[in-house]
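Run: sequence + beta-D-galactopyranose -> complex structure.
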Amino acid sequence: MAIDRRGLPDGLCYGGDYNPEQWPESVWHEDVALMRAAGVNLVTVGVFAWSSLEPRPGVFDTGWLARVLDLLHEHGIRAVLATPTASPPPWFSRLHPDALPVTADGVRLTHGSRDTYCPSAPAYLKVARAVCAALVERFADHPAVAMWHVHNEYSAVCHCPHSTAAFRVWLHAKHGTLEALNDAWVTAFWGQRYGDWDEIGTPRATRYLANPGQDLDFRRFCSDALLAAYLEQRDLIRAAAPDVPITTNFVFGAWVPVDHARWAREVDVVAIDDYPSDAGPAAEEQTAFAGDLARGWARGEPWLLMESAPNLIYTPGRMHAKEPGRMAAHSLAHVARGSRGVMFFQWRQPRGGAERFHSAVVTHAGFDTRVFREVAALGAHLRTMTPGVPANRTALLFDAHSWWALQGAGLPAPVDYLDEVRAAHKALGGTADVVFPGEAVSTYAVVVVPALYLLDDAQADVLRRYVEDGGTLVVSYLSGTCDEHARVRLGGYPGALRDVLGIRVEEFHPLAEPVALSTRGKGMFWSERVHLQGAVAEVTYDGGELTGLPAITRHGRAWYLSTRLSSDEYTRILTEIINTER
Ligand code: GAL
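>> structure
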């Protein structure tokens, strides 16, 4: 898509979340002057501003926002205009207690933070449409608006009666009959067979292990319910402002029930928020993966880093101040991976509120700071660069559904899917295109498939044809184990990929301790009793019960890793495989 025609500034975008509603108007003038000094050309306004935009039910106050947009426009700064629906005002919660979310433990949450609503509650959806419509009516033609930003980080989960009813409707549409649902969820196990749709609930707290099919379908339902809420607002905006791009900022994490690969088809520009969870070198690895993943969601088009931390980043237990130069390094890593710019959360550090110590460009100390100087230096640098999108010959396959399924209980060992994928990405040198199950991969010389636990027949066919057509496939343990309903494929692992890989796995041997391999160091965490059915053993186990049996196999161009290699050995083997394809 030609984004530039639809509103974003030329060149690279630079700026961040701007919350003028938290400050007197006198401060706004200092803000725009500082933005100019820092090279800022784009700011996001309106996120969470609902109680300022609709102070009383149905009474809108958009005047202050109009003055902000006018001021930005006068100073040549464009705006990403957000709808505020991630944070309903207190009056909403008081009037509609049934729209407050219920946790899996059955606790109804109360007002006091953000994201406190049920995405399936009719009252919530109604007021969300209304506030969106009020913004559209007032600002559809405002010249400062470069892009619309619906909501903030869709991720809410709810187990209330509204959600339960909506889940049943979704299940009915998906499975058609109770018989099909019972079959998909294997409810014959533990006598869970359903005889009536009204017996089915969301996966709330239960006695012992939950049903994996129910868990997985609930995540998918949540993704679709949130998507429906997004689409309502998107379509309202699109009808009034057809030439302005519309997006929402994707947040990525184990708790997020959103299939971003699917959602990406519904946004005009993929936008991500990226906050590495580690302070050490893993922060750079996470940044690299996040950028490649965003480009994957964008299917090779430009995308936008919508939020990142200018300084302090959250790490478990304490915040970590980014060392001088590190903010720029992270920012440029995203630009190198196709981001159309660099945006921060947040412009001005608030004097109170839950995130008062979250880093900002203009801090509690003001603008005579190291951070402001670094931000301004980066702004100057970005003006000398032109946006671009890299292309790769190597792809990494990522699947949100497999991630969700692997978060469930009852697996032979706890599997950290994200860690598996990031380890593969790191072993690929921290750069690869990211692709999703079922999508064409024929343009790649090598496709790496880590722990792809769920695979339907059509998705398996894509990989099969890829190898038949001369592609090189590297698959790691657990891939192909289950079908799309998380039912185990019978006849031996890796189920759907046995023929492509020329092997049959008889049993899993999760490892408490690393085990020696004939070459390539040690196998960690996982091992398997692998039988060759056409493949050759490239590496064998050299310790423990599996001594002499295959650990790494090759069937023509299809490789299988039945254990986890050290980071160095993983890098080495993938490098060798890629080099033979050059
Ligand atoms: C994002 C969110 C922001 C802010 C930020 C803090 O997830 O969109 O509003 O909370 O995290 O890191």
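>> summary
The first strand starts at residue 13 and ends at 18. The radius of gyration is 25 Å.
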